[in-house]
Write a structure and sequence with these properties.
Distance between the termini: 38 Å
Radius of gyration: 25 Å
Number of strands: 17
CATH class of one domain: Mainly Beta
CATH architecture of one domain: Sandwich
Order of helices and strands: HHEHEHHEEEEHHEEEEEEEEEEE
Helix content: 10-25%
CATH topology of one domain: Jelly Rolls
Number of helices: 7
Structural class: alpha+beta
Shape: globular
Strand content: 25-35%
Length: about 325
């Protein structure tokens, strides 16, 4: 993010641009395979600190001359209000903004975030009650890796100030603290599962001039649990199709043999016999699709195997 005057752009002053650019670096999660995580527990796909605690570096030379290390825990949600503050941008007031401005921390001021709850959930689809969910507040983290009707003793409680590696579960010794955190834990979960974009998920629009071709990836697919890693799984995307002629491509995790490709778009069912010599990409050309809002279901039948594509490309050609 650069914040500079138009005349500086016209003359392209590299020094001015360098000094007045806010550079933010961070990662989205911990490592996927076992590697150095600073002694923390867990990897990517878990809500232990090894899965969610990541580095964050900020550089803004014209405002911050000296280096400093900040130990206060922040979150990705803090980036929006921070950038808005630096650029004098008005944040929308018709919705709840969860983040906090990092400016006071960057300026060396103290902030009272000891009671700020941070909620973590990892899932491929919807959040599961008490499964791979955590709440951190101050020095304590309550972790749920259990069943929906679990007792408080089934949870994990860590004091990350004394135990940054989450190796000593304190839920029995500090049961009251665990129960207090669980109240906020439950409130955060309930707020999450009634959010508009979870209850009424936006449809993926296909055939607009804003994105053509459109790629449908397993990350956004519904259907069978475990769809991310399985070839023989039932999957679909909830879409809004604009009437037109499309070229459609199926990409597979592994090459497929001779079989039949199917594309179900609401009441339309498209099928084509495919002579494949171990290809991992097949194409259906000049497929006419009507206006439709509903489920798009692609699959490939090879003998008795029903194979779900890794991704699908739809390009509107007319």
């Amino acid at each position: 993010m650069a914040h500079f005057h138009p005349e500086q752009v016209a003359h392209f002053d590299p020094e001015y641009l360098t000094d007045n650019t806010l550079l933010i670096f961070l990662t989205d999660n911990g490592p996927q395979q076992q590697r150095y995580v600073g002694g923390m527990k867990g990897l990517k796909t878990t809500v232990y600190r090894g899965g969610v605690r990541v580095p964050m570096l900020l550089r803004y030379p014209s405002k911050f001359k000296e280096s400093k290390r900040i130990k206060t825990t922040a979150t990705h949600m803090d980036i929006l209000p921070t950038i808005a503050s630096f650029t004098d941008t008005q944040i929308p007031n018709d919705r709840k903004i969860d983040g906090e401005k990092l400016n006071p921390l960057l300026e060396g001021k103290e902030v009272d975030w000891a009671n700020r709850p941070l909620f973590f959930s990892w899932t491929r689809r919807y959040p599961e009650l008490y499964q791979n969910i955590a709440l951190q507040k101050g020095d304590y983290r309550l972790v749920g890796m259990t069943d929906y009707d679990a007792k408080i003793e089934d949870f994990e409680l860590y004091n990350i100030s004394n135990d940054p590696g989450e190796s000593s579960n304190l839920v029995h010794q500090e049961k009251q603290m665990a129960e207090e955190l669980k109240i906020e834990f439950d409130a955060q979960y309930k707020e999450l599962i009634i959010s508009e974009h979870l209850v009424n998920k936006p449809m993926i629009e296909i055939g607009t001039p804003f994105e053509n071709p459109t790629y449908l990836n397993r990350n956004d697919a519904g259907g069978q649990k475990g769809i991310w890693a399985e070839d023989e799984a039932f999957g679909l995307w909830h879409v809004k199709i604009h009437k037109g002629t499309y070229n459609v491509k199926f990409k597979f995790l592994h090459p497929v043999e001779n079989g039949t490709a199917f594309l179900e778009a609401g009441p339309q069912v498209i099928r084509k016999a495919i002579s494949s010599n171990e290809a991992d990409l097949i194409e259906l050309s000049n497929v006419h699709l009507n206006d439709m809002e509903g489920d798009l279901i692609p699959y490939y039948m090879e003998n008795k195997r029903r194979i779900f594509p890794f991704w699908v490309e739809l390009e509107k050609v007319n």
